[in-house]
Structures are given as C-alpha cells and as structure tokens.
Design a protein that fits this description.
- By secondary structure, the chain is α/β, with parallel strands linked by helices.
- It folds into 2 domains: about 210 residues, Rossmann fold, CATH 3.40.50.720; about 230 residues, FAD/NAD(P)-binding domain, CATH 3.50.50.60.
- It is built from 20 helices and 19 strands.
- The strands form 5 sheets. Strands 3-2-1-4-19-18 form a 6-stranded mixed β-sheet.
- A hairpin with a 4-residue loop joins strand 11 and strand 12.
- The radius of gyration is 24 Å and the shape is globular.
- Bound molecules: NADP nicotinamide-adenine-dinucleotide phosphate.
- It catalyses: 2 reduced [adrenodoxin] + NADP(+) + H(+) = 2 oxidized [adrenodoxin] + NADPH.
- Its EC number is 1.18.1.6.
C-alpha cells in the first residue's frame, strides 16, 4: 500500500532550491535531525529534507517526534472529518516514513516526556513544527467559567477523537440546540457544518471518520440546530474563505436555511472597506456571495445558520443554578481605522444573543517547548527564514504555524517547509553544521528515561485496526478511531 513515491520523483522537482544541487560539505558522521511534530509542516519538512542534498550520502537520520501516539497532527485532529480530501495530504508523507533513515516516535512530548537536552545531545538539527495547540479567549465573567462556554479546540478535538477530550455539554431544549460561535473563520464554518450535517443526517458525515462518541451524542441529544456566528467587524473583514462558505450554501433547502442581514451588508460598505474590496480579488468573489445570500435569506425546518456582523461580546447572562450561560451580551460596533487596519469600536447599542452553547472560535496560539521560551514571542518562535538559534550546539529551525502563527491552509506549509529546509542546507553549505549532538542514542536515552512510544510499524497496526473495526454507522465509514491511549499503546507500542 505504501509505495516509495518520494524516491520515484525526479530530485529536481522536489528540491527546495535547485541551485543547492552543488556539492555540500556533508558531515561524514551520522547527521541526526529531529523534527518535532508530524503534522503538515513537519511532514513537508521531512519530505524536503529527504530530497535535499543533505541526504546525498547515507548518514542522514531523521527522527520525528509527536506528543500524540498517532501521526499527522491537524490532519487527523484538526481538519473536519467530512474533509477527507484535505486529510489525504498524509498520503504524501507515508512513503517518507517507510524509509530506513526515518523513525517515528509517537506519544513522546518534547519538554515533558523527553527533555530538550536529551534531544540537543543526540541531534545536530531540530526542526520545530509542533503547531499552535493552545487556545485563548476572554473569560467575560468574574466567576468560574460557565460550563457551556468552550473554545473551538474542545469541540474539534472531540469530534476528531483526541484522547481524553470529553466534549461540550449540549444543553438543548426540547431537542433544539442554540449555538453561538464567536469569530468567523474557517474553523467556525467547519464546526457549523458538522452540527448542521448531524441534524440533517447527511450521509457524508456518516461516512466520515467523525468518532462515534461525538456522532452518537449529537444524534441523540440534538434534533434541530440554530447556529449564530458573531463577527465583531463587518462583512468585508470576514475571515472565512469562499470555498468553505459556498459548500454551506449548497446545503440549503427546505430543511436548512442561511441568513445574513441586509442591514449588515449595507453597513459593511464604508469607504475604507470599499477600498479593501477594490484591492482584493478573493474578497470581491466572497463579497458577491455574501451579498447574494443576504438578498435571499432562507429558513430551514431543522437547521439554520445565521452569519452576523458588528457584534462584540462583552458579557454573559448566567443561570446561577446551573452555572450556564443563557445569553451572550454584545455591543453593536462600528469600524474605525485605515483600510486593512479597521478595528471594531463599541457603540452604546446592546444586543442579547440567546444561547445553549458558546464556542469561542477565535484562533489558536502556540507555546514554546520547555527550555526554548527565550526564542518565543506572541505565540511563535522568533526566526529569520526559519532559523531560530543554537541550543547546546544544536541548530534550531521552525516551520508551520509555530513559525508564522495560526494562519493558512495545509498547502501553506509547503512553501514554509521548503524555505526552512533551504536554510538548513545553506547552513551546512556554509560549514555551520558542525557541533551539536553526534546522535545515535536517542532510543537508548528514551529507554533509560523509561519512555515508551509508538513507532511507525506500531502506527500502521493502529491504522489497520481503525480501518478494519466494525463499522458503527454505514459500510462506507472510513474508520472508527481509537480514542483511548492505553488501547493505542496495547496495539502500537514499540517492542
Ligand atoms: P481565523 O481565521 O484567524 O479567524 C478567527 C476569527 O475570530 C476572526 O473572525 C476574528 O475576527 C475573530 N476573533 C479573534 N479574536 C476575537 C475576539 N477577541 N473577539 C471576537 N472575535 C475575535 O482562525 P481560525 O478559524 O481558527 O482558523 C485558523 C487558520 O486555519 C486560518 O488561516 C484558517 O483559514 C485555517 N483553516 C482553514 C480551513 C480550510 O481551508 N478548510 C479549515 C480550518 C482552518 P477579527 O478578524 O475581527 O480579529
């Protein structure tokens, strides 16, 4: 099944930079590279390292560490279950993991399970590609956080089967769930689509790899869903993209409606926003679609999505008996500032949005690996073209979200990884690759430290079990993910 696709590609077509074909000063001893994170950015870094001149002799060793027991990062745990075409990007990396010079260490969290110095002493190069896995949102209450307020990460982790995630409380009333999602990016559209598809009983969700624990609860507890997406700015500042929104508009019909207020569209067209519109082709296309949806709003019998603008949440109405939010208090905003830098400014007008569940879908933040805090600012590693610094003689590089922030689609990582690998190669070309850990030994260190892990063969066993498991819903269901770490270790532990 796993063919060696990378090795069959012409070298020049996958090299980060063709001029780098010139001879390099390749170290004669083993060159150990650690990649932290096996999501799309780590995957592309691995792919380009293997096809770089660093791999022209037989001494390159690449160890890929992931805190999860399974590979693929956001491809497995972030991308929506009904977007299998995007998830399939992992096919591109499988061949790389089959190579002898590549090792996978799943369930090994660098900074926690294994300390940074264990890695710097056994590797010459570390590529930090561990993504942005924390979330940040204002509490809006002085009391403990109400139980029905969550971050998007919680619900996304839940339906994607991240071990240990219990998922949100669905406080539906008579089977109707009112969900308020704050922030209007693509993650918001993913969550909305999964909720809507669930009540619409869409085959594409049944066939997907949404985990049964989430699917079953949504089906059992929610009969109808009303999703309201609150944007603090106007329509021209919408963060989601046209493709994702168009997919939702195609779902409308008797049972599902989408609504955008005409007043919001009109208010969005201030002079500064029209300048933004004039300068952006993607925005023009999106704007046309948003305007057309607003001129023919629809109401569905069981599922409704409403995209609302100029609403800035500032507080909650809380039912003290249950510590749950019953409405989100918002102030109506206006925009101020230059084109492309417009900010929301609160007015005195207030709006209450009744709700059963509040989801803050306001983006993700990164965290430094323990010991690398001094290279870190505002949720990303400070770096120049991917170079971060030198730690214990080991050169550090970064790519993906942890380098540029939580923006961009899977494909954005291609450019990012190519540039980072180009820097790695340039540094070796310049003789800066000397020093650092001579390597070998990381497995010995892990054994000494009592660390257990899932290796590539172990992951393949897990993968097979997930694909072969009894289908819970329909024959077409892609897999039923294992959501228990002990079970994963039982199947996949390196022996
Ligand atoms: P995002 O695109 O950055 O959107 C965040 C949203 O939250 C924006 O609407 C932002 O509004 C709003 N927001 C931020 N802070 C806020 C606050 N304090 N109060 C109210 N609203 C606030 O984030 P995301 O949706 O998490 O996506 C992350 C990245 O992954 C994006 O680049 C996205 O395109 C990508 N992604 C792509 C896909 C896909 O291609 N299918 C799927 C999922 C994610 P302001 O603009 O006003 O700050």
């Amino acid at each position: 099944m796993l063919t060696s696709r990378i090795s069959s590609l012409p070298l020049k077509s996958i090299l980060p930079c063709s001029h780098l074909l010139s001879p390099l000063r390749i170290p004669t001893r083993s060159l150990n590279v650690a990649i932290i994170g096996s999501g799309p950015s780590g995957g592309y870094a691995l792919k380009y390292l293997l096809s770089s001149p660093l791999n022209s002799s037989n001494n390159l060793r690449i160890n890929v560490f992931d805190k999860c027991h399974t590979p693929w990062g956001l491809l497995r745990s972030g991308v929506a279950p009904d977007h299998q075409d995007v998830k399939n990007a992992s096919n591109d990396f499988e061949a790389a993991f089959e190579r002898e010079e590549v090792k996978f260490y799943g369930g090994v969290e660098i900074g926690k399970t294994l300390k940074l110095h264990h890695l710097t002493s056994t590797h010459k190069i570390i590529i930090l590609s561990h993504g942005c896995s924390t979330s940040n949102f204002p509490s809006l209450t002085s009391s403990p956080s109400p139980s029905n307020v969550i971050h998007s990460k919680n619900i996304v982790d839940w339906y994607n089967g991240v071990p240990g995630v219990i998922g949100p409380i669905l406080n539906s009333k008579n089977g109707v769930l009112k969900v308020t999602i704050i922030g209007g990016g693509n993650v918001t559209l993913d969550i909305s689509r999964i909720l809507l598809k669930s009540v619409l009983k869409c085959p594409s969700l049944e066939e997907s790899d949404i985990v049964e624990r989430a699917f079953e609860r949504l089906r059992r507890e929610v009969g109808r869903v009303e999703v309201r997406v609150l944007n603090r700015r106007g329509g021209m500042q919408t963060a989601f993209t046209i493709k994702e929104f168009r997919d939702l508009t195609k779902m409308t019909g008797e049972d599902m409606g989408i609504n955008i207020k005409k007043e919001d569209i009109e208010k969005s067209m201030n002079e500064e926003s029209l300048t933004e519109l004039d300068k952006s082709r993607p925005l023009k296309r999106l704007w046309k679609l948003l305007s057309s949806v607003s001129s023919s709003p629809t109401t569905g019998t069981i599922a409704n999505l409403s995209i609302e603008y100029f609403l800035n949440p500032y507080g909650y109405t809380v039912d003290p008996s249950t510590n749950t939010v019953t409405s989100v208090k918002c102030r109506v905003t206006e925009l101020e500032g230059e084109p492309f830098k417009q900010k929301p400014k609160d007015t005195d007008v207030e709006v209450d949005v009744e709700t059963d569940l509040v989801v803050w879908s306001t983006g993700y933040k990164g965290e430094a690996i323990e010991g690398l805090e001094r290279y870190f600012d505002n949720g990303v590693y400070r770096c120049e073209g991917g170079r971060v610094g030198v730690e214990g003689g080991c050169r550090l590089y970064a790519c993906g979200w942890i380098r540029r922030g939580a923006v961009g689609i899977v494909g954005t990582n291609i450019q990012d990884a190519r540039e980072t690998v180009r820097r790695v190669v340039e540094d070796f070309e310049g003789g800066e690759g000397e020093g650092g850990g001579e390597g070998g030994g990381v497995e010995e260190v892990m054994r000494e430290e009592g660390v257990e892990w899932v290796d590539w063969e172990g992951w393949k066993r897990i993968d097979e079990v997930e694909r072969r498991r009894e289908r819970k819903r329909v024959d077409e269901q892609i897999r039923e993910k294992i959501v228990d770490v002990d079970e994963m270790m039982k199947i996949g532990k390196y022996l």
